C-alpha cells in the first residue's frame, strides 16, 4: 500500500544512471484524455546532442509530447525509447532514476516557493543524488554563475522576475548533469523584455553535447539554434525539416498557413 | 459582592495545588500537541500515498473523532479502552515510576496522564488533518510536478516540498487547534486527571474560595493562551517571513520593467 514511499535515493539503482546514447525515440505514441485523442501514433527520433524545436498551434499536443518523455503524463499506446531502452513499463525507483537524469523546464518555472534560488538547486542534489550539503551548495552557486544569477542566490522566487526565475529553473534542471533536457514553452509566460535573457542561456546550452527538445513559440530560436524543426498539429507530425528549409520552403499547406499567421500576422489571407 | 480573600488561594496548600495543576496542564498540552502532530502527519501520508484503503481509514478517523464529544472520548479511553490493554502492561503503568517525573513534580507515566494526552492528541489530530490538508491543496500543482520531474520519491515530495508550504499556508488554523487542545485539557479533570481545573475545584471544596480560585485558574489559562499564541505565531513557518528574511530586498520585476 505504501510501496515506493520510503525508498530513498533514485540514483543508486543501475539502469538509467548513465545514458550511452542520449537519444529519444517515439514509437507509435498514442495519448488520449478521455475521448479526446491528443497524439495519434507519433513516430520520431531525436539523436544524441541534437537540438529539436517543436512548433505547432495551441492544443496541438506538443507539450504533451515532451511531458510523456519523463512520464509527467502516462502513455496510452506505443512506447518511448531513451538510450534505445523502452521506458513505458518503468515504475518506482527506475522511473525516478530516469526522471533524475532528464532535465525539465516548465512554462511557469515552478521554482520551489519556500526555498531560495540556491536551495532550489541543491535540494535534489542532496536528497535524490546523495550529495553532501557543502558540495551541493558549491554546485548550486556554480550553476547560478553559469546563468548569471549568482548575486541572487539567497533570494526567494517571489523576489525574482520571471526571466530570473526561469534562469534559476534552467540551472536547477541542469544540476544533475542530465544528458537530455526538455523545455516546455520556457518563454511563453515571460514579459517580452525578459525573453532574451532566457534564450541566451538556452543558446549557450545548445550543441554542448546535451540533447535538447524545446517546445516553443519563439520562431527566432527555432530558426537560429535548432538543428531540426518539427511541426505538429491535430496530434500528428506534419513536417520535420532543418530550420532553413522549414522556414523558407514549408511543404505542408498547414505549415505554410501557420508560418504565414505567426511570422506575418497583419498580412494574411482573410479566412 | 462579598470581599475577595486572595490569601485563601495564594498561600499554603491551595497555591501548591494551583501550581501543580498549572504545570500538569502545560505538560499534558505539550504531550498532546506532539501526539496530535505526529498522528496528523501519519494520516496525511496515508491519505496521499495509501490508495483507497488509506483514504477510507483517514475518513473514518476524522469523522469519528471530529463528531463525538471530547469528554466522551476521554471517558472511553480511560474507562473502556484502558481495560483492553494487557494486564501486565496496566499493572506496570499503575506502579510507581520515579523516572517519569517531569520538572514540577508531574508524573507522566500514569494512566491519567497517558489517557489524557492520548485522548487530546487523537481528538486534535482529526482537526489538524483537515486543516493541513487544505493548506496542502493551496500548494500549486506545478510544485509537485517540478519535484516529480527531478526524481523525488512521494515521501520526499511530501516532506521537502509540499509539507513546508502547506504548513505555512495552514499555520494560523493549526495554532488555533493547539490552543484548543490546551483549553480542552480542562475536560481531563473528568477522568480525575489533576490538572489546573481539577485543582481549582479542589480548592473550592477545601475552603469554599470558589470565586478566587476560578479567577486565578482563568487568568492562568488566559496568560498561557496568549503566550502560546504569540510564540507559535512567531516561531512557525509563514509565507511572508520568506520575503523578510532574505538580505537586501530588490524586487527585480519592478526595477526591470521600469
UniProtKB/TrEMBL annotation, chain A:
Keywords: Amino-acid transport, ATP-binding, Cell membrane, Membrane, Nucleotide-binding, Transport
Keyword Iron attached: no
Main location: membrane
Cytoplasm found in the keyword field: no
Domain ABC transporter: 24-259
A GO cellular-component term linked to this record: plasma membrane
Membrane topology qualifier: Peripheral membrane protein
SMART domains linked to this entry: AAA
Family per similarity comment: Belongs to the ABC transporter superfamily.
Listed name of the protein: Amino acid ABC transporter ATP-binding protein
UniProtKB/TrEMBL annotation, chain B:
Family annotation (InterPro entries): AA_ABC_transptr_permease_3TM, ArtM/GltK/GlnP/TcyL/YhdX-like, MetI-like, MetI-like_sf
Keywords, alphabetical: Amino-acid transport, Cell inner membrane, Cell membrane, Membrane, Transmembrane, Transmembrane helix, Transport
PROSITE patterns found in the cross-reference section: ABC_TM1
Membrane topology, from the record: Multi-pass membrane protein
Transmembrane segments: 20-46, 58-80, 213-232
UniProt keyword annotation of Cell membrane present: yes
Cellular compartment(s): Cell inner membrane; Cell membrane
A GO cellular-component term linked to this record: ATP-binding cassette (ABC) transporter complex
Main location (coarse class): membrane
GO BP annotations listed: amino acid transport
MF annotations from Gene Ontology: transmembrane transporter activity
Highest taxon of source: Bacteria
Location of the ABC transmembrane type-1 domain: 22-232
Gene3D superfamilies (alphabetical): MetI-like
Record-stated family: Belongs to the binding-protein-dependent transport system permease family. HisMQ subfamily.
Designated name of the protein: Amino acid ABC transporter permease
Lineage start: Bacteria, Pseudomonadati, Pseudomonadota, Gammaproteobacteria, Enterobacterales
Amino acid at each position: 500500500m505504501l510501496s515506493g514511499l520510503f525508498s530513498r535515493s533514485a540514483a543508486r539503482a543501475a539502469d538509467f544512471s548513465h545514458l550511452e546514447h542520449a537519444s529519444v525515440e517515439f514509437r507509435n505514441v498514442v495519448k488520449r484524455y478521455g475521448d479526446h485523442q491528443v497524439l495519434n501514433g507519433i513516430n520520431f527520433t531525436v539523436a544524441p546532442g541534437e537540438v529539436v524545436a517543436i512548433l505547432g498551434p495551441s492544443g496541438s499536443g506538443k507539450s504533451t509530447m515532451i511531458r510523456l518523455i519523463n512520464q509527467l503524463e502516462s502513455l496510452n499506446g506505443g512506447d518511448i525509447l531513451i538510450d534505445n531502452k523502452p521506458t513505458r513499463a518503468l515504475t518506482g525507483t527506475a522511473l525516478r532514476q530516469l526522471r533524475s537524469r532528464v532535465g525539465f523546464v516548465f512554462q511557469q518555472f515552478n521554482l520551489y516557493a519556500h526555498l531560495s534560488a540556491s536551495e532550489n538547486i541543491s535540494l535534489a542534489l542532496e536528497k535524490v543524488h546523495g550529495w553532501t550539503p557543502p558540495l551541493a551548495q558549491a554546485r548550486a552557486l556554480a550553476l547560478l554563475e553559469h546563468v548569471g544569477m549568482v548575486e541572487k542566490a539567497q533570494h526567494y522566487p517571489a523576489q525574482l522576475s520571471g526571466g530570473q526565475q526561469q534562469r534559476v529553473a534552467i540551472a536547477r534542471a541542469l544540476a544533475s548533469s542530465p544528458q537530455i533536457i526538455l523545455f516546455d514553452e520556457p518563454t511563453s509566460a515571460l514579459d517580452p523584455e525578459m525573453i532574451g535573457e532566457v534564450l541566451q542561456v538556452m543558446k549557450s546550452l545548445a550543441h554542448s553535447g546535451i540533447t535538447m527538445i524545446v517546445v516553443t513559440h519563439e520562431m527566432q530560436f527555432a530558426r537560429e539554434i535548432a538543428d531540426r524543426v518539427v511541426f505538429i498539429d491535430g496530434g500528428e507530425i506534419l513536417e520535420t525539416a532543418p530550420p532553413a528549409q522549414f522556414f523558407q520552403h514549408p511543404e505542408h499547406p498547414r505549415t505554410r498557413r501557420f508560418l504565414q499567421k505567426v511570422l506575418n500576422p497583419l498580412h494574411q489571407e482573410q479566412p | 459582592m462579598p470581599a475577595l480573600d486572595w490569601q485563601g488561594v495564594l498561600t499554603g496548600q491551595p497555591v501548591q495545588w494551583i501550581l501543580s495543576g498549572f504545570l500538569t496542564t502545560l505538560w499534558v498540552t505539550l504531550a498532546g500537541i506532539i501526539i496530535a502532530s505526529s498522528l496528523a502527519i501519519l494520516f496525511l501520508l496515508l491519505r496521499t500515498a495509501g490508495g483507497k484503503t488509506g483514504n477510507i481509514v483517514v475518513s473514518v478517523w476524522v469523522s469519528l473523532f471530529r463528531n463525538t464529544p471530547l469528554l466522551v472520548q476521554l471517558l472511553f479511553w480511560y474507562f473502556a479502552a484502558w481495560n483492553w490493554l494487557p494486564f501486565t502492561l496496566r499493572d506496570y503503568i499503575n506502579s510507581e515510576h520515579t523516572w517519569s517525573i517531569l520538572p514540577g513534580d508531574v508524573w507522566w507515566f500514569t494512566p491519567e496522564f497517558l489517557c489524557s494526552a492520548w485522548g487530546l492528541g487523537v481528538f486534535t489530530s482529526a482537526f489538524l488533518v483537515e486543516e493541513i490538508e487544505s493548506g496542502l491543496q493551496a500548494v500549486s500543482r506545478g510544485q509537485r510536478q517540478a519535484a516529480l520531474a527531478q526524481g523525488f520519491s512521494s515521501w520526499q515530495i511530501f516532506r521537502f516540498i509540499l509539507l513546508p508550504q502547506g504548513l505555512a499556508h495552514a499555520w494560523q488554523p493549526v495554532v488555533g487547534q493547539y490552543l484548543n487542545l490546551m483549553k480542552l485539557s480542562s475536560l481531563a479533570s473528568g477522568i480525575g486527571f489533576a490538572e489546573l481545573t481539577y485543582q481549582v475545584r479542589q480548592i473550592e471544596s477545601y475552603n469554599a474560595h470558589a470565586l478566587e480560585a476560578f479567577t486565578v485558574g482563568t487568568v492562568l489559562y488566559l496568560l498561557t493562551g496568549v503566550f502560546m499564541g504569540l510564540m507559535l505565531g512567531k516561531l512557525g513557518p509563514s509565507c511572508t517571513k520568506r520575503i523578510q528574511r532574505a538580505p537586501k530586498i530588490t524586487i527585480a520585476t519592478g526595477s526591470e520593467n521600469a
